[in-house]
Amino acid sequence: MDKEKETREKLGGEVKLGHCLDVILKNADVALHYPSFVKLYEQLIAGILLNKGAIKYIFDKKSNSNWYFIFARALSIAWIEDKRYWEWGSCGGNEIAKLIEVSWLDIRGKIKESMLSPNIVYEVALQVQLNDRSFGWNAPMNIELKKPDGSKIERQECLLGKQPNQWLEIAIEFKVDNHGCGSSGEIEFAFYEHGGHWKRGMLVKGVRIGAKGCGCA
To answer: What pLDDT is stored for residue 215 in this prediction?
Structure first.
């Protein structure tokens, strides 16, 4: 039995490697192992960088769905280029945004609906860390998600009392509707606190977008 056939049988027969994969991988930063199923599958579950390193794509084999991580540099962060309020740093080889102090916290992003697997309950999760000098987090963080049909999902989460110096996720979940690869709709998300009081001491790694309970790191 050749390796291609053996791998397919171990995976349960015919396995789809990801919804709208041909469209998504047009923006891959590396050469892809077409037409080898085995090598391509190994690439996808290990992760592939897209859009010049702005996004990481992983095929989550547990949920058979597309998974992404949008790095901080690819997010829209208010005042990010003003060194009085933010600065860039690194953690584990990844670039992170380091909050010095702001009164208007606003972090936004979006992803094309066609990049997500249909009929999957997804989480959009901002990964942040509060340091020992954090201050001003007594007001809750607002989390807002807007779907292509105009409907919104909103919630709040309070960061006061969260363990410092540990990465945590501020998440909101939604179900992706059935759609085709030609869909032009976008999922828009925002994490913000516009209360006007000063906040400091937060690190921003990026946003994870994956199936609820996804085991991806």
So the answer is: 52
Taking alpha carbons only, the member of 84, 27, 13, 33 closest to residue 55 is 27
Mind giving me the DSSP string for 14-31?
S----TTHHHHGGGBSS-
Q: Strand, coil or helix: what is 175? A: strand
pLDDT (tens digit, 9 = 90+) per residue, 71-86? 999 999 999 999 999 9
pLDDT value, residue 35: 64
How does DSSP assign 134-158, residue by residue?
Answer: EE---SPEEEEEE-TTS-EEEEEE-
Question: What residues form DSSP beta bridges with 51?
Answer: none
- Phi/psi of residue 172, nearest 5 degrees: -140, 140
* Helices assigned H by DSSP within 13-108: 21-24, 37-46
Contacts of 51 (CB under 8 A, 6+ apart): 27, 29, 74
Domains and CATH numbers, the chain: 3-56 (no CATH), 68-211 (2.60.120.260)
Q: What is the pTM for the complete model shown?
A: 0.90
**What angle separates helix 3-10 from helix 37-46, to the nearest 10 degrees?**
50
Q: Which residues of the chain have pLDDT under 70?
A: 1-16, 35, 215-217
Backbone φ/ψ region at 161: left (φ over 0), alpha (ψ -120 to 50), beta: left
